[in-house]
Amino acid sequence: MKITVWNEFYHEKVHEDVKELYPDGMHAVIAKFLEEAGNEVRTATLDDPECGLTEEVLDDTDVLFWWGHCKHGAVPDEIVERIYTRVLDGMGLVVLHSGHASKIFRKLCGTHSGKLKWRESGDKQILWVVEQGHPITEGIDEKIILEHEETYGEHFLIPAPDELIFISWFSGGEVFRSGCVFKRGRGKIFYFQPGHETFPTYYNPEVQKVLVNAANYVCTPKKSYNYGFCESVLEEK
Ligand code: ZN
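That is the input. Now the predicted structure with zinc ion docked in place:
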């Protein structure tokens, strides 16, 4: 499987605590464990030409991972459209943490904003598996415990997921739909909530297992489909 891990790669350059945790960027850590699982992995960041997501790169990508936070607006619409079309044709997409507010996730979710409640107080998080036996939870017991994470809480403004895999509890009392699958066209999207930049979440072996499983799950054979409508009716007059 060919995977591209995209990261806006901003916090790791400007915040000392994040730099210390992820000296080569979160994308490097994520790419490493995906590679160790037997995948062919490349990385791409916001500062690369065309965000590192050229037509050629996307044509050669089975699954795209996405981590973004404060630079969502800097991703050109043209690139978002490029990813959107590929997902409808079957490219898998794994959206991480604050990627809930990315242009591509919101576009794929439709009119929903992806807004949620949040609080940065290092709460303990328990991700409860609500879909036992699902390929994404293979090798995971009934829960994953993270000693510290950013709190994300309901209500999460998303359409009802096609599959709900994890629900989280935070020590402050919030609950959150932390693992959701959406199906769009031929494509599958997995949203996975933990992964705040100041916590070592992507070094956690169980989180890594979930993400390796997720890549396998959202990977489907790609095929362009002629939807048969006239493009001009969609253009603004
Ligand atoms: Zn965060």
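The first strand starts at residue 2 and ends at 7.
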